[in-house]
Task: structure prediction
Amino acid sequence: MSLLTVTSVQPLTPRMVRMTFTGDGLADIGTWPDQQLKLLFPKPGCSAFVSESPDVGVWYQAYLAIPEESRPWMRSFTVRSLADDVLTVDFVLHGDSGPASAWAARAKPGDVIGRFGPSPDYARPLGGADVLVFAGDETALPAIASLLELLPSSQQRLAFVEVADPMEEQDIPGVRWVHRSAGENLVSVVTAVEVPSSVWAWLGGEASAVRALRRHFVALGVSKKDIEFSGYWRRTFTQDDAPTAEDLAEAQERIAALSE
Result:
């Protein structure tokens, strides 16, 4: 576990801000597709530091041992980029309804948070199908954008991103933007598109939408091992809440897919 210091804050859209960080250990991480990490946000008057152990079991036990009133809030994020010892992360702003969003809305250079990961133990290669499909909401946009940047120009791809309105679009070539302001939703748009069964799919965002899309692709004949999926958030729940039965089922499906 290491600490990160904010070095820049750049608004991207009305609801998304990009931050860069420096910190110990960034030069040793390396890069791979879809890098996930945990960020720890200190509670008022408290520290974001937990433990120097790189072992996830030791680190997480140390985290749980911190009294709840001073235990930092922990949230999962995707690395937008990591180069020259600088970590870039994009934050979705949705008011003060969550600790990460509330922190990001007020963050300034010099602020300090905690970091655990990303770990190469969880690295997965991009699929090798003729057509790659990417679908997610704004919480998955940093991951989708970084993945699209890795693809050669010859690679066929379909990319769908659901956002609030056209003001939330970013300059990412090839994305089909899905606007909630126009009454659209990710599941309806993606399932209406005709795709071959020989695709590789990457799905991220709200958990129930991700599950619906995964079921859709499986029904089309896409092998489960060719579907990467992650429910980044849950309606009416946060990462501090206990997992639901559907969350546990999703975790089991991801484990099963890895073993296939």
